[in-house]
């Protein structure tokens, strides 16, 4: 008897579910995309226990008839494709026909649906991939899918789920993404206790951003709009024997980009605020992220990230979405063109919103610029006077005579001819042994002091400091037997306040002061869930905060 066997449909569906259904947010994503493909205008999502207990998605799309609803739960049954050539022209969010059978194999699923032309709807009940009930029912046109007890028959998958609040945050972030991508549709997200997102249909992406992010964020955004023609290179075409007499070569098409990017002043600590959609599909592509990083290079710190909402529309033949089970990664046929177009479009928008003058022109137009660059060192009250410099000190004379002139920054051209000489044979000075070793006391903190040397006593060194001046109202200049100390007074003050807060927390005596007018902060649905976890910690630190509004 052979050892190789064909897997049953139930086992095959559970294996496929491992690729498609990773967590409750994956279920919401697949069903949400089906609703959008069905031309739904109102979509309502309900989630309980982070999606483990219940996920319900109701839409007013075109629905399905009885035969189609039964066929939809067969593997690789889809209404999106007819032949392999259609894979090169995918214009819908879903196309494989794997989502519904995969979800039904690891949950208890109920579907209610009705097509507009049918008099009665259809009710299907499936548990663990087995059909339990099919009957007619009356309902409005559209589809409602209810998923209960996700991963009830695969406990190994269920134990890898995160906490309920974490899973709910992933669902909220996903719904937020698709609400931003489809401003003309109505979205609602409800948990077991309250509404997390209610976004009525609007006419523009700017209005949808205002609904989700608030006015403060919208005011910091810059519009982006550009388009370019694709090169006519390597466009997929049918073989000659499939071309008829009226065949015309396909046009290269146009690539368009629209949306918003944030001004440099608005920065985030992670990429969670970067929303990029390719032909309406949410993606996480390295090529796109690299192009955005290049466009913001030297504009924001490398450890900070902008807020981005961009819609990239390309001909379906120019992008392959069939490269990842979750369809979150894509492959562009002309990657360099897409990368450069995205980078240049965002960079042009940034430059147009905030033009930067050259340094020399700024000095010429503003005589006060040179004065602002001068460094003033003001003595602190009670600081000892420093001895005057000797009259013969050449450095003193040079420093006094120096002044910043705008002409010094203007470019000059001069031809210099260097004589041809042989390279020196001597060993470069940076390869020679030092004449005198630097004391371990002045080495970097990561180095280990040599045996016999004493470690510096930080507290003792600070106690012997004598303040001698202040630099630009920001740095304290102090001296002791070790030399000159330059202290950032703002950072030092923050550390003093931090230590004070720690002492008050230990004794539960944190001081509070209420604002005359409370500060309102707009939070996204996922941020609101994170706030619920941090509310007690904020209260222990003296911040009184509570939800406000619907």
Summarize the structure.
This protein is an alpha+beta fold and 550 residues long. Among the domains are: 1-201, Histidine kinase-like ATPase, C-terminal domain (Heat Shock Protein 90, 2-Layer Sandwich); 203-237 and 252-356, 2-Layer Sandwich (Ribosomal Protein S5, domain 2).
Helix content, binned percent: 25-40%
User: Rough shape?
Assistant: globular
Radius of gyration: 33 Å
Average pLDDT score: 79
Structural class: alpha+beta
Beta strand %: 15-25%
- Tally of alpha and pi helices: 16
CATH architecture of the domain at 1-201: 2-Layer Sandwich
Q: Order of strands side by side in the largest beta sheet? A: 5-4-3-6-2-1-7-8
Q: Quickly name the level 1 CATH class of the domain at 1-201.
A: Alpha Beta
What is the number of beta strands?
19
* Stretches with pLDDT under 50, minimum 5 residues: 358-363, 394-411, 438-449
Main sheet attributes: strand count, strand direction, barrel closure: 8 strands, mixed
According to CATH, what is the topology of the domain at 1-201? Heat Shock Protein 90
Amino- and carboxy-terminal Cα gap = 65 Å
CATH superfamily of the domain at 1-201: Histidine kinase-like ATPase, C-terminal domain
Annotation keywords:
single chain; alpha+beta; Heat Shock Protein 90; 16 helices
Describe the structure.
The chain has an eight-stranded mixed β-sheet with strand order 5-4-3-6-2-1-7-8. Among the domains are: 201 residues, Heat Shock Protein 90; 140 residues, Ribosomal Protein S5, domain 2. A hairpin with a 5-residue loop joins β1 and β2. With 550 residues, it is of the alpha+beta class. α2 runs parallel beside α6, α6 runs antiparallel to α7 and α9 runs parallel beside α10.
């Amino acid at each position: 008897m052979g050892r190789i066997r064909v897997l049953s449909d139930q086992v095959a569906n559970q294996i496929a579910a491992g690729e498609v259904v990773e967590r409750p947010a994956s279920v919401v994503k697949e069903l949400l995309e089906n609703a959008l493909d069905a031309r739904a205008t109102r979509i309502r999502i309900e989630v309980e226990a982070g999606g483990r207990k219940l996920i319900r998605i109701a839409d007013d799309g075109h629905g399905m008839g009885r035969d189609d609803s039964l066929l939809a739960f067969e593997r690789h049954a889809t209404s999106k494709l007819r032949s392999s050539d259609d894979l090169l022209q995918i214009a819908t969010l879903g196309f494989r026909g794997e989502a519904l059978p995969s979800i039904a194999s690891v949950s208890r699923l109920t579907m209610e649906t009705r097509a507009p032309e049918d008099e009665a709807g259809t009710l299907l009940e499936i548990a663990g991939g087995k059909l339990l009930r099919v009957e007619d029912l009356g309902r409005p046109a559209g589809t409602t899918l209810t998923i209960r007890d996700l991963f009830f028959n695969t406990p190994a998958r269920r134990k890898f789920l995160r906490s309920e609040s974490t899973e709910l945050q992933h669902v909220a972030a996903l719904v937020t993404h698709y609400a931003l991508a489809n401003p003309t549709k109505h979205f609602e997200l409800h948990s077991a206790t309250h509404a997390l997102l209610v976004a009525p249909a609007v006419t523009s992406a700017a209005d949808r951003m205002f609904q989700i992010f608030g006015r403060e964020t919208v005011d910091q955004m810059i519009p982006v709009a550009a388009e370019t023609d694709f090169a006519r290179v390597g466009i997929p075409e049918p073989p000659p024997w499939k071309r008829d007499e009226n065949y015309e070569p396909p046009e290269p098409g146009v690539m368009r980009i629209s949306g918003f990017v944030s001004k440099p002043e608005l920065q985030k600590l992670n990429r969670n605020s970067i929303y990029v959609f390719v032909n309406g599909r949410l993606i996480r592509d390295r090529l796109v992220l690299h192009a955005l990083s290049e466009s913001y290079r030297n504009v924001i710190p490398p450890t900070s990230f902008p807020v981005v909402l961009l819609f990239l529309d390309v001909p379906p033949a120019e992008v392959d979405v069939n490269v990842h089970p979750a369809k979150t990664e894509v492959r562009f046929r002309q990657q360099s063109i897409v990368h450069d177009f995205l980078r240049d479009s965002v960079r042009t928008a940034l430059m147009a919103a905030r033009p930067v003058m050259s340094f020399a022109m700024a000095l010429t137009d503003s005589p006060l610029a040179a004065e602002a660059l001068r460094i003033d060192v003001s003595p602190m009250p009670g600081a000892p006077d420093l001895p005057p410099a000797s009259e013969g000190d050449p450095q003193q004379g040079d420093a006094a005579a120096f002044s910043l002139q705008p002409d010094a920054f203007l470019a000059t051209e001069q031809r210099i001819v260097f004589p041809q000489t042989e390279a020196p044979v001597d060993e470069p000075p940076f390869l020679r042994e030092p004449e005198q070793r630097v004391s371990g006391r002045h080495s970097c903190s990561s180095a280990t002091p040599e045996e016999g040397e004493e470690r510096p006593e930080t507290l003792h060194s600070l106690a012997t400091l004598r303040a001698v001046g202040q630099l630009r109202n920001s740095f304290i200049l102090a001296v002791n037997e070790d030399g000159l100390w330059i202290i950032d007074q703002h950072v030092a003050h923050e550390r003093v306040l931090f230590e004070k807060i720690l002492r008050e927390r230990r004794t539960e005596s944190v001081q509070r002061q209420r604002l005359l007018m409370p500060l309102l902060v707009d939070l996204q649905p996922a941020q609101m869930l994170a706030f619920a976890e941090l509310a007690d910690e904020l209260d222990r630190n003296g911040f009184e905060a509570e939800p406000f509004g619907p």
